[in-house]
Amino acid sequence: MEVKIGVQNAPREITVETGETAEEVERLVSEAVKAEGGVLTLSDNKGRRVIVPADRISYVEIGGGVQGAVGFRH
């Protein structure tokens, strides 16, 4: 599952490939945003962790991308 996180005052979004389901990612984001001083923590498919302060998240895009797609679309 591809997750893109927009972070305030950062020039690029963070992209994470995770084994979590869309529902689990949504739950983690919701919990992080609700908690005072919360952080969103996701682990990618290689075991690395991405930690983002919840108050800096501008958006989270869950899913997207097509596995195995190569080339250009017309």
What would you say this structure looks like, in words?
Pfam families: DUF3107. The structure is a single chain. The chain has 74 residues and is of the alpha+beta class. It has a single domain (2-62), classed as SH3 type barrels (Roll), CATH 2.30.30. The protein is built from one helix and five strands. It has one helix spanning 22-34; strands at 2-7, 14-17, 39-43, 49-53, 57-62.
Helix content: 10-25%
Instruction: Name the helix and strand elements from N-terminus to C-terminus, one letter apiece.
Output: EEHEEE
The best one-word shape is globular
Kindly report how far apart the N and C termini lie. Answer: 25 Å
- Give the biggest sheet: 3 strands, antiparallel
Q: Could you list some keywords that capture this structure?
A:
74 residues, SH3 type barrels, 1 helix, alpha+beta, two-stranded antiparallel ribbon, single chain
Characterize this entry briefly:
By secondary structure, the protein is of the alpha+beta class.
Indicate the topology.
Elements: E1 2-7, E2 14-17, H1 22-34, E3 39-43, E4 49-53, E5 57-62
Antiparallel strand pairs: 1-2, 1-5, 3-4
